[in-house]
# Entry
Amino acid sequence: MELSKDEKYMELAIAEANKAFDQGEFPVGCVIICNDTIVASGSRLGTTSNEKYPSEIYHAEIRALQSFESSISDGITEHYDGINNYETIGVCGEIGKISRSKRISEQYELINRSKIMPGQCTLYCTMEPCLMCFGAIILSGIKKIVYSFEDPMGGGTSCDLNSLSPLYRDSGISVIPHVLRYKSLELFARFFSKKDNLYWKDSLLEKYTLEEMIKAQNFKK
Ligand SMILES: [Zn+2]
# Structure
């Protein structure tokens, strides 16, 4: 069966989550897509068993947003390597392709030139964003979030925006849950099934995830 666009991009976020998992991190991955181009990505950091105290800043969405801001604000020369015929660049909030044959400092042409407008971007993440990330995504100007697995313990997207101040209340953000849910569920269940993984050990999230995995497996039988 052919994947939908949201599923296709969620696969990329899951690939980021797999990278985190392989490094012993909590398997959350995130990508930001603008005009069918991946403009930023991030994966969870700071949760391995070696951490004395896990980081609650380096969430996948925050790391993707950091990379997103760089994509928007970086100048041409930092991205242009002078070797490839075409190099995707970020320039003053724009993304496009630059022709090698033109000298950058004198004249350049942007092919398929289009601005990175946060409002036209979609953020894909493998777990429902927490309150911190949900707030940061709203402040970034991104208007659409697609996530895979719900977080019954720390998910922030169900908060009542109408009860908040104008920046949040009037953000117009839309949230689409459960895209490729089983794939993400399976990865989180694998994380919690490993004895060495201590992050959110014995938590409501662990209990819920493992129960959901059993339910999903029974449903498949
Ligand atoms: Zn978060």
Summary: The beta strands are 29-34, 37-43, 86-91, 94-99, 110-115, 121-127, 144-149, 174-176. The radius of gyration is 19 Å. The CA atoms of residues 189 and 214 lie 10 Å apart.
